[in-house]
Every structure is written in structure tokens, then in C-alpha cells.
Design a protein that fits this description.
This protein is α+β, with helices and mostly antiparallel strands. The chain has ten helices and 14 strands. The longest helix is centred in the N-terminal third of the chain and has 24 residues.
């Protein structure tokens, strides 16, 4: 099933609009509520997803959608004032009055459908980075027959922590299957092709990791660095969101490993689909920590994978080998049972 240039241009426009909306809300109001115990969710999450849902409903009525936020949480977790703010921001963005019922419909749009094409949406990837004025992005990916075929990341702060960031530190990073990966200024400009680095030495490779402690087993990462013979001065950079995928794709990083300390944790689909499409088109490689291809056929959670490894391809085998050295395999069925081939299942 062919993905057209028009598909890409449509989603680029939608992602830009959502990122602009998030910037407006961030500047005027950062008002977190509590979701799933401690995970913050902001007015911007709901407003951004509603805006994207509206655009998908208008342009792709036959496609399915997998997205993070839900109308029942919108109604339950936000009070009347917060819901009214979401309604106001979306009304301003679409240029016509929007009722609360429409917000709910757009938040849930496409979730009950099964189709060959599924849009996978994270309205704010890196919510804690958004709240702390760090990296975050709007992530829109497309699965065709459960394979990433298109990815767009609208990142308002992509260059924000560079020593000399541009006047507008934002970037739009995007890829379409078979057409390559590109970066351009967030709100318009010349698109430049991007490609992963040619770095082959794991000791000096640029390692990217997450600020979020729930996503990164720091003790394991230290053992991995030791197995790769990386010294204390080896470059490592912490940041939020799929900006890490984009930086691997653009040659601004070489290795990104995500392994949660909780052995039962399984990655969320919307945290990886758009980034996977971009990294793949830029020449990189992505697997889980056992070297398996990522399986996007399992719904909201990637239940057949544990963790994620993203590299420039040239370092991937070395990283997987180091992973196997960094933690002994689990044993099941007693002390004399053979070791499992999968270290982290």
C-alpha cells in the first residue's frame, strides 16, 4: 500500500499545527494533572491530540488510530476549568467553535477501527520534558500492515541545548518509506537530507539516554558502558522524547538504549513508531535488547519485545554483544535448567 508525498505533506502540516499549539499552551499555562498515579498529563496533551484527531478524521476516514490520550481520562482527570481551557485552545487552533463532545470524539477517533493503515500518535512525547522546558515533540507515525511507513516529529526545542542554538531552535524531522529522511526548520524552510553517522568505535560513540528514571536502568547502563570499554569521559547526553531517535538519524548521536528497571515493563507503541520510520530511512538500525525486530502488531504495548536499542547500524552488533555481557541470562526451572536465550524477557 503506497504512501504518497501528499500523505507526508498533510501530516507535516498537522504536526506543525500541534507543535505550535503546544508552544502556546506552554508559554501561557503549564497545568499538570495526575494520570496513572504519577504520570503528569497537561492540557496540551489533550488539545494536541484533539487537533490531530480532527485532521485525521477529515483526511483519512478509513484509517485506524492508536493514540495515547482517551476521552474518559479527559473527563475524569481534568476539572471544568481545565476542560474549558482545552476547548478554548482547540477552538482557536481550528478556527471555529468546538464543543466538549467534539473534543471527546477527536480524542477517541479511529480507536475502534481495524485497518491496513494505523496512525500512531503521541500528542506530546516527553511530557515531563515539556513541563521542565526541555526537549519534547509531537510524534505522528503510520503503520502499514504493522510496519512503520511514515514518521513525523515536530520538535520545538530540538536545538535548544546546543551551545549556539538558532533563533528558532525547533525542527521538523520526517521520513517516508523509500524516500529518505529529512530535517527542516519547524515552521518552514529548506529540507535537508539526514543520515546516520559512520562512527564505528563504541568507546567514543555518542550515547543518548533518557532523563526519565522509569525508562532507564542506570546501573545496567553503567555495566553496558564497561562492557563497551567506555571511559568516564565517553560522551553521553540525556534528553527526553523521540528527539533521541531523530538525533541518531541526523548523525548527532550514535547509540540510544532504553531499558526500564521494571522487568515487567513493555514499551508503548507511540514512543517508537515515528522514530523507527525516520531512523530506518536514515540508515540506522533498531531492535529490542535481545536483537529482535520490534513487533508493532500487539496493540498499545509492545508485548513481544523488551527494551529498545537504536544505533547508526555500524555499532549495533557491538552493542548487542555488550548487552549480553552486562547481565547474566535468567534461568528458569531450577538451578540446573539451561539459560534462556533471551536475557530480558
Amino acid at each position: 500500500m503506497r504512501i504518497t508525498e501528499q500523505d507526508l505533506q498533510t501530516i507535516k502540516t498537522v504536526a506543525r499545527m500541534a507543535a505550535s499549539l503546544c508552544q502556546t499552551i506552554q508559554a501561557e499555562l503549564v497545568d499538570p494533572a495526575e494520570k496513572d498515579g504519577r504520570e503528569p498529563v497537561t492540557i496540551a496533551d489533550y488539545a494536541s491530540q484533539a487537533l490531530i484527531g480532527n485532521a485525521l478524521a477529515e483526511n483519512y476516514p478509513d484509517d485506524a488510530v492508536l493514540s495515547e490520550e482517551r476521552s474518559e481520562e479527559f473527563m475524569l482527570l481534568l476539572d471544568d476549568r481545565q476542560r474549558a481551557l482545552v476547548q478554548r485552545y482547540v477552538t482557536d487552533a481550528v478556527g471555529g467553535y468546538v464543543f466538549e463532545e467534539q473534543i471527546c470524539a477527536w480524542l477517541d477517533y479511529g480507536k475502534q477501527k481495524t485497518a491496513a493503515r494505523t496512525w500512531v500518535i503521541d500528542p506530546i512525547d516527553g511530557t515531563k520534558g515539556f513541563l521542565a522546558q526541555r526537549h519534547y515533540c509531537v510524534a505522528i507515525g503510520l503503520l502499514v500492515q504493522n510496519q512503520p511507513a511514515l514518521g513525523v516529529l515536530a520538535s520545538p526545542g530540538f536545538y535548544s541545548d546546543d551551545p549556539n542554538p538558532p533563533d528558532d531552535p525547533g525542527a521538523l524531522i520526517f521520513a517516508r518509506q523509500g524516500a529518505g529522511a529529512f530535517i527542516e526548520p519547524l515552521f518552514g524552510g529548506v529540507a535537508q537530507p539526514i543520515h546516520v553517522s559512520l562512527h564505528t568505535d563504541p568507546q567514543t560513540a555518542r550515547l543518548l539516554s533518557s532523563y526519565e528514571s522509569a525508562h532507564t536502568d542506570r546501573a545496567f547502563l553503567e555495566r553496558l558502558s564497561h562492557a563497551l570499554k567506555r571511559g568516564p569521559d565517553a560522551p553521553e547526553r540525556q534528553l527526553d522524547s523521540q528527539d533521541k531517535h531523530a538525533m541518531i538519524a541526523a548523525g548527532l548521536g550514535d547509540i540510544f538504549l532504553r531499558l526500564a528497571p521494571d522487568v515487567a515493563y513493555r514499551e508503548k507503541m507511540w514512543d517508537h513508531v515515528a522514530g523507527h520510520a525516520i531512523v530506518s530511512e536514515a540508515g540506522g538500525r533498531i531492535t529490542d535488547v535481545n536483537g529482535r525486530a520490534l513487533d508493532f502488531s500487539t496493540g498499545r504495548r509492545m508485548t513481544r519485545n523488551r527494551g529498545v536499542v537504536v544505533t547508526n547500524r555500524y555499532l549495533h552488533d557491538a552493542v548487542l554483544a555488550a548487552i549480553r555481557l552486562s547481565r547474566p541470562p535468567r534461568r528458569t526451572g531450577g538451578a540446573n535448567a539451561p539459560a534462556s536465550e533471551d536475557l530480558y524477557d
